Queue: 2 jobs
Job 1
Amino acid sequence: MGKLEEGIFFTGSVGNLTAYRMRGVDKIIIRKKGGPTKKEIEEGRNFARTRETNAEFGGRATASRWIMRMMTPLKALADYNIAGQLNRLTTAVQRADVTHSTGKRSVALSRYPGVLEGFSLNKQAMFDSVVRAPLSVTIDHETLTARISFPELVPCINFMPDRRHPYYSFIAVLGRIPDLHYTPEGYRPENGEDPQQTSPTNYTMPWHPAVGIFAGTTVEIKLPPPPAGSPFTLMVSVGIRYGAPTEMDKIRQVERAGSAKVLRVG
């Protein structure tokens, strides 16, 4: 992967080169076209290892889609492409599978839930730099519920919101991520569940003025019963979004402003 230096600006295809922009990278990315054909990769004896690598990469990509799906209400707060970092985290989970052969190793987050805890959706203003007091969370796997306690927050003491925005609001999200296993059709949960047919549950607090003290509160969120037949992990994520007043005396969410993180997985 190359990056275009200053003074050269274009995106698209030119000859055997393709140039494009990527969120979180300040320069244009450039790649060279070419390589083996699709048929060679799918059938060639020399590409057996490539097929194994591609299959497992597909498993990690599917796991990342599940994770991102379970933090949908917070994705607008991310300031970089989180998919790549999630793929790296799930690599460690997949490599820990010693039961299946290479190319068919599972991505079983239920065995290593801690790998996602603390994952940040930001590289700039991280959630822990804004909320400088611990949040308490408990997860009940049987009832599919989570209780998140937000402490009292005092601006300039243990709370450092973005001063450019007069309002803020907290969001708490509870999602469910099933273990994924290899099949000839790709990586799937044991019950065949599809991430696009599953949604997280979230609680969005009312807007608060950024100059006032936040009194603290506890919220409880609950998921509907899942389809039977597949081990899963529960993930609690939290975020802070910012708001600005409109001409209609309402508050609108400021785009590309805020912070979020994975608080607890279990």
Job 2
Amino acid sequence: MERPNIILMTDSYKYSHSVQYPSGTRFVESYVEARGDSDVEIVMFGCQAYIKEYLKGVVLEEWMIDEAAPILEAHGIDFMEKEWRQLLKDHKGRMPIRIDALPDGTVASKGVALAVMTNTDKNYFWLVSHLETSFLRAIWYPTTVATRSREFKKIIMSGLVESSDDPEGQIDFKLHDFGARGSTSKEGAELGGMAHLVNFKGTDTIEGLLAAKRYYTGDADAYSIAASEHSTMTSWGRENELAAYENMLDKYPTGIFACVSDSWDIGNATNLWGTVLKDRVMARDGTVVIRPDSGDPVITPVTVVMQLLDTFGYTVNSKGFKVLPPQIRVIQGDGLNKKTLNMLVDALISRKISIDNIAFGMGGGLLQDVNRDTYSFAMKCSAAEINKEWVKVYKDPIGGGKTSLRGRLDTVKSNDKFITVQKYSVQVPSAFDMVFLNGRMVYNYNFTEVRKRAKL
């Protein structure tokens, strides 16, 4: 399979930039950051996938130049064909670029430089700007999903700590990814689904699991369970709703399965599970998970859990919270976002109902309800060597706003916090790894280590 054409992986206006820098420019450094001053903790993620997919090894070939020439000429762009052919000759198709970055999974505050890219051959300083489009895109999206997933994890973990006897034992499977069908593309499902797996081990986005195994060493383990959908329930007909549930019990006599139960009346279905089907549920070696999939995302699941507590009974744990028998649980996978998730957890806690009783799922709210401005991501030039002297490059518009960092940047850890400083200005070791150099991937991170860095 041919690689994508790296010449064409950029914005049209980038091709004109080489002549716009001052005469004597030889090196350019640009950095990636999530701008702003909120207290959100950013989970750096996606750099290794980008390097393996687009930068590692020979990524420029003659056919790419031949392909780009007529396309860009018809597009009205002079794309420096001579320079690209010379780059191919000088570096045999490898990119003369260095990338220093925080290791994937690192948790840092907003406003910290997450990665720095520099050219290593003075003749190709324009490459840094050329690669900005693809590199920033490869960082902002998976980093944003990993960050949001971890923020959701904080909400759930807080509820578990308050109401459960085993928070650590449950948290890995408390937020399930249902986002594959809501993603804009296969690659979006891969990157977003993989980013969620930094924080949790439950997913139905198989492309995310495959991506984690492809781009990282180690055991990127993730799991799912048997589950019904509306078609497998409604095909029985409303008059045979009970038979549809009985069929699930027949087909899955042991283990865990989830059953969507709101096709007609979630209250009636919950009653069926807690009365007619109760003995069969309680006799199973496993767990039946009831899934409401419509209605208010806070009121409906709370009502279902309370109804099940009435019919199946409960125990009270050491923290004074009600816990259903292990044979029966609930999952809410519709309409959740940060606000409704917070409200649902609070509603259960206020009723002395343990978060043990429920799991959560997200689809578009997890993988798709984001953009580059969610955490104000940007990649900006901060320094350039011009006439053999490094100068600071920055913007500082009147009225504030999108002020950029300036100078040759490094990120270090000081007092357990990552901060960005001027390169060589402090004695503290850099927190960056040199992850890429001249076509060679320097680090190959283990997914277990990535998860460990992002752990709450």
